[in-house]
Every structure is written in structure tokens, then in C-alpha cells.
Amino acid sequence: MNESWRIAYLEARVASLEKRLSERSATLRIFTRQACDEDVINASRTALGLPPLPRAGFGLRGWKETTTLAPAEVEVTMRELWRSVTPPHLDDDE
Q: How many domains does the chain have?
């Protein structure tokens, strides 16, 4: 009797742990979809007992460099590039 009780207890415990793991995984998937990369990194560090990283000044942490532009980015990017260019100063002699 004791052996069958122990097996039933362990099976119930495994089922409970599997349910909690499934619920926690769903919560973490939602969090990673909604949070910025910096928040995900700091949440992971906190879970490991590490201090959070200081915030980057311009939000460059997690930057993924690519040469591919999305159509919506072209106008904004070109406007910012032209705005950043200072026209050369030409003397009247030139």
C-alpha cells in the first residue's frame, strides 16, 4: 500500500509541476512579445540574481543591424539624414 501511495503522490506532484511550468511558459512568452529587448534582458538578469544593466542613453541595447529597410522607414530615414547634413558654407569668391 505504501508503494502505491508514493507512486500516486509522485504522479500528482509531476502533474502539478507540469501545469505550473506550462502556465509560467505562457506568461513568459507573452512578456517577451510585449516587452522591449532591454526589459527582457534585465528580467533575465534579475531571475539569475544579477543586477539590471543601466539603461542605454539612446535605446541602442538590443540593436539589430541590417541593411534591409522596411518601406515605412525610408521616408523617415531620408528626412533624418538630410536634416543632419549641414550645407557647406561657400564664400562669395567661390
A: 1
Contacts of 59 (CB under 8 A, 6+ apart): 36, 38
Mean pLDDT by 10 residues, the chain (94 residues): 91 96 92 84 90 71 69 76 70 61
pTM: 0.47
CA distance 37 to 34: 9
In a domain, 47, yes or no: yes
80 in any annotated domain: no
* Residue-range definition of the domain harbouring residue 29: 1-54
